[in-house]
Specification:
This protein is an alpha+beta fold. It is about 45% helix and about 15% strand. Strands 7-9-8 form a three-stranded antiparallel β-sheet. A three-stranded antiparallel β-sheet has the order 10-12-11. Helix 5 crosses helix 7, helix 9 packs across helix 12 and helix 11 crosses helix 12.
Length: about 300
């Protein structure tokens, strides 16, 4: 109802242009479908009780089927820097049916346009280590995703024969497509997943990880985390600091200098979450400090808890 009220408030002034930011997100499947149909009728004029119809509607969405269902002109955006990657004229005839051949063909076309750059083939050669400047490892961006999402997605891939199309995978999750891609990229970064073409594959390491007990998982996860330049960079800062402790503010400042286009607070939170799982450092929430002990493994402490 909050979503409907938001739309009603926007319509109260009879706008010629209606701008909507993910109007059907955060809703269950049936409610989202109902609201999507109402929006379709509203702008198309079909069975609408409005005394007017907006001349144009701009909708932001991560849902491919929603874009094909509602839009006559689809603009695919890229990131870093933000730019228009492609514009697709949607020629699926009205009224649109989700299972019609022309609708499904347009969904596949849009799917291919989105994943062309987001899921590139991996090089066959071994990954190049993160470069270091002056002996200090250089940090790189980290997907801001929960580890539970990564491991849960890996289980889904295993349940489907260790290989699944990324769009089918997205339909099996409760995430929007952008978050699904971020989770896949995180698994790929850790060496647990591979992404040739539009497929998501569970690697040999990923299968061994899922088959291992909790101690085995921690050991493998630790090895993968320590291979990433961002964590080696943070460990370098901690080992050079007095008492091997640094505040959140200082670490974020160091990251901001090197990751100029990233949200460093999200990067920091990811570092804490992954680093504590790998047991390579601890986090004192009361003082907002990262620290390393003399012992390689971090001992438990009631003041140490995730952000």
């Amino acid at each position: 109802m909050k979503q409907r009220v938001g739309i009603a408030r926007a319509l109260a002034r009879a706008p010629e242009l209606l701008c909507m930011d993910e109007p059907c997100s955060a809703l269950d499947v049936f409610t989202a479908e109902s609201l999507r149909t109402e929006i379709y009728r509203m702008w198309s004029g079909g069975q609408s009780k409005l005394p007017f119809q907006p001349k144009s509607v701009v909708i932001i969405t991560h849902h491919i089927e929603e874009a094909v269902f509602l839009a006559d002109r689809i603009v695919v955006l890229g990131t870093r820097p933000g730019r228009i990657r492609t514009i697709i004229q949607n020629d699926v005839p009205h009224p649109r049916e989700y299972q019609s051949p022309t609708f499904l063909k347009m969904v596949q076309r849009l799917h291919d346009a989105i994943t062309k750059d987001q899921l590139p083939d991996l090089p066959e050669s071994a990954p190049v280590p993160t470069p270091a400047i002056g002996g200090i490892p250089e940090p790189s961006p980290l997907p801001a995703v929960n580890l539970g999402h990564i491991f849960g997605l890996m289980e889904i891939v295993r349940d489907h024969g260790n290989q699944i199309d990324v769009f089918k995978l997205d339909q099996l999750t409760e995430y929007d497509f952008g978050h699904t891609i971020a989770v896949v990229k995180a698994g790929e970064l850790l060496g647990f997943l591979d992404t040739p073409k539009n497929q998501v594959l569970l690697t040999d390491l990923g299968r061994r990880f899922l088959d291992a007990d909790i101690n085995g998982r921690k050991s493998m996860f630790r090895d993968q985390v320590l291979s990433l330049g961002t964590f080696r960079f943070v460990l370098h800062l901690l080992k050079e600091a007095n008492n091997h402790r640094l505040s959140k503010e200082i670490i974020e400042e160091e990251l901001a200098v090197r990751l100029t286009t990233e949200d460093v607070e999200k990067v920091f939170n990811t570092i804490v979450g992954w680093g504590r799982m790998a047991e390579i450092f601890g986090y004192d929430a009361s003082s907002e400090e990262l620290f390393v002990d003399n012992d390689p493994s971090i001992s438990s402490n009631e003041n140490i808890r995730p952000v």
